[in-house]
Amino acid sequence: MSEGQVLKREPIYQGRVIEIALETVELPNGDQVELEIVHHPGGAAAVALDDQDRVCLLRQFRHASQGWLWELPAGRIDPGESPFDTVSRELLEEAGLLAADWTELGLMHSSPGIFTEVIHLWLARGLTTQPLAHEHGEVIEVHWLPLGQALDWCHDGTITDSKTLIGLYRAGALIKSAVDMLAEDPGC
User: Fold this and answer.
1) 2, 6, 18, 169: least surrounded by Cβ within 10 Å?
2) What's the rounded Cα separation, in Å, for the pair 35 and 139?
3) Dihedral through CA 134, CA 126, CA 50, CA 117, nearest 10?
4) Are 71 and 160 spatial neighbours (Cβ–Cβ below 8 Å)?
5) What pTM, to 2 d.p., does this model score?
6) What is residue 166's DSSP assignment?
7) Are the CB atoms for 36 and 157 separated by under 8 Å?
8) How far is C-alpha 94 from the chain's CA centre?
9) How deeply is 33 buried, as exposed, middle or buried, from its count of CB atoms within 10 A (0-12, 13-18, 19+)?
């Protein structure tokens, strides 16, 4: 028997984006539990850095969060779309940017106790600007901040969105590692 095998699945709700199901699952220790699971197709987000190491952050109104949030350009994976296609599309639509250089920053689980959503993170560089193409229902302001200031906002609680926190921390660590390597061996 596999870990977390679904023994019974009862759909409760099917929406445009999510499906909610009541699932009876056998856990690795043999216990059976009933769980409410929100199935989501996943998403992708970009830490877009320009040549001056400024990061593109969106100030976006989110009704569910009761106000404005600072976020990375990101979006939901459409049917048949790869996470990379999603992040490229969303960077263009939300921030008006194309990127020539992409580095994977891994993935994250947004709320693994109840959601199946996985968000794929990338560092995007070599940016060129294009016209914005915000979707109906999106209220977004595009801002550019020094990466150090964005990381300060992660530390002081100004940024609270999890994908943005993780994406910025991972990008910051990757850049710091590269700078440290160059400092140790200037011939690199």
Assistant:
1) 2
2) 34
3) 50
4) no
5) 0.91
6) H
7) no
8) 13
9) exposed
Q: Which two tokens stand for residue 159?
A: 């940024």
Residue 49, phi then psi, degrees to nearest 5: -115, 130
Instruction: List the structure tokens of 172.
Output: 């910051």
Give dist(CA 56, CA 181) in Å, integer: 26
CA atoms in the 13 A half-sphere facing the CB of 58: 28
- The pair of structure tokens assigned to 41 is 């197709």
* pLDDT tens digits, one per residue of 53-107: 999 999 999 999 999 999 999 999 999 999 999 999 999 999 999 999 999 999 9
Residue type, 137: G
Residues in the chain, how many?
188
**In terms of pLDDT, which residue wins out, 136 or 145?**
145
**Nearest-5° angle of CA 61, CA 107, CA 80?**
80
State how far the alpha carbon of 120 is from the alpha carbons of 8, 47, 128, in Å: 29, 11, 22
Helix (H) or strand (E) holding 100: strand 97-109
Give the span between the Cα atoms of 144 and 141, in whole angstroms.
Answer: 10
What are 133-137's contacts with CB under 8 Å, separation 24+?
A: 133/92, 133/93, 133/96, 134/93, 134/94, 135/93
With residue 148 as reference, give the H or E element that holds it. helix 147-156
Find residue 144's DSSP bridge partners.
56
Mean pLDDT of the chain: 94
